[in-house]
């Protein structure tokens, strides 16, 4: 037996709302917003949606920079990734 439940913690209200509030409407509206525009980050949101079909997933908002170990680690990795991206683009 593998993983059956997952809790995703995020400090991004946008990311949480994408999958917990807006996603059902976007699916129904052929991935268009209420302003009839393409949904931004659609590929990533679709991938999350697909992954959620196989697990019981709970999305929880957490305060940024509050000492939450996973959040602090994610921030460090994001800074490293951004720095690496800049380094590569300057090459």
From TrEMBL:
<dbReference type="InterPro" id="IPR050092">
    <property type="entry name" value="RNase_H"/>
</dbReference>
<dbReference type="GO" id="GO:0004523">
    <property type="term" value="F:RNA-DNA hybrid ribonuclease activity"/>
</dbReference>
<comment type="similarity">
    <text>Belongs to the RNase H family.</text>
</comment>
<dbReference type="GO" id="GO:0043137">
    <property type="term" value="P:DNA replication, removal of RNA primer"/>
</dbReference>
<feature type="domain" description="RNase H type-1">
    <location>
        <begin position="1"/>
        <end position="83"/>
    </location>
</feature>
<dbReference type="GO" id="GO:0046872">
    <property type="term" value="F:metal ion binding"/>
</dbReference>
<dbReference type="InterPro" id="IPR012337">
    <property type="entry name" value="RNaseH-like_sf"/>
</dbReference>
<keyword id="KW-0479">Metal-binding</keyword>
<dbReference type="GO" id="GO:0003676">
    <property type="term" value="F:nucleic acid binding"/>
</dbReference>
<dbReference type="InterPro" id="IPR002156">
    <property type="entry name" value="RNaseH_domain"/>
</dbReference>
<dbReference type="Pfam" id="PF00075">
    <property type="entry name" value="RNase_H"/>
</dbReference>
<keyword id="KW-0255">Endonuclease</keyword>
<keyword id="KW-0540">Nuclease</keyword>
<keyword id="KW-0378">Hydrolase</keyword>
<protein>
    <recommendedName>
        <fullName>ribonuclease H</fullName>
        <ecNumber>3.1.26.4</ecNumber>
    </recommendedName>
</protein>
<dbReference type="InterPro" id="IPR036397">
    <property type="entry name" value="RNaseH_sf"/>
</dbReference>
């Amino acid at each position: 037996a593998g993983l059956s439940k997952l809790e995703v913690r995020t400090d991004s209200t946008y990311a949480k709302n994408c999958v917990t509030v807006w996603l059902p409407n976007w699916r129904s509206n052929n991935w268009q917003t209420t302003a009839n525009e393409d949904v931004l980050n659609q590929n990533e949101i679709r991938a999350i949606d697909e992954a959620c079909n196989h697990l019981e997933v709970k999305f929880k908002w957490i305060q940024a920079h509050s000492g939450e170990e996973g959040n602090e680690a994610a921030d460090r990795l994001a800074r490293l990734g951004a720095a690496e991206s800049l380094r590569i683009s300057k090459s």
